[in-house]
Amino acid sequence: MPARRVKPSLYVSVDIEADGPIPGPYSMLSLGAAVAGVQDGAGFTAADPEERTFYRELRPISEEFVPEALAVSGLDRARLTAEGAEPSVVLAEFAAWVREVSAGAQPVICGYPASYDWTFLYWYLIRFTGSSPFGHSGCLDMKTLYATKARLPLRAVAKGTMPRELLSRRRHTHHALDDAIEQAELFARLMRWPGVTVPPSPPAG
Questions:
Q1: Among 25, 36, 61, 87, which residue has the least CB neighbours within 10 Å?
Q2: What SUPFAM superfamilies does this protein's entry cite (predicted)?
Q3: Catalytic positions, please?
């Protein structure tokens, strides 16, 4: 029986800025994405992270917000309430963009860490479009990827402890597109990094 052909994975680095810890009571205020690369049977090929990007700022969906969370991004919530794009429009545009850039491949979100950004983005996709181009599990966490390759406990991982050659030279600005591009570079380097090898154990006796 012939082997089933597996589609390549198209990795999309995603960063969101929000005004609270969870979607629903709180709002996603901006969404940035950059194509990081593609992986097929021949390996991983990095993309220019500035070549295919997406960025939008959204209208808040509730009156609630956490001032400390809002301060991280520096976004003006009052301005977004008046001028931000409708979430239903943004998420439909984003889903169409993902389908376009991933033609012939399966799109996968990658983030650092992915858990926060995925929670908001998946919730918004389902709430405002009814479906997700990533399915319910098309998500890869860079912290987990690094922890596995570095042979470290996950909670011991921080960018400040990573080898310098893995890190992007771009600043982490808390602008969603800037950070998506920065993280795309980190992801590409992590995918190429061989990781930490464990020396062989000495012979017994």
A1: 25
A2: Ribonuclease H-like (SSF53098)
A3: 174
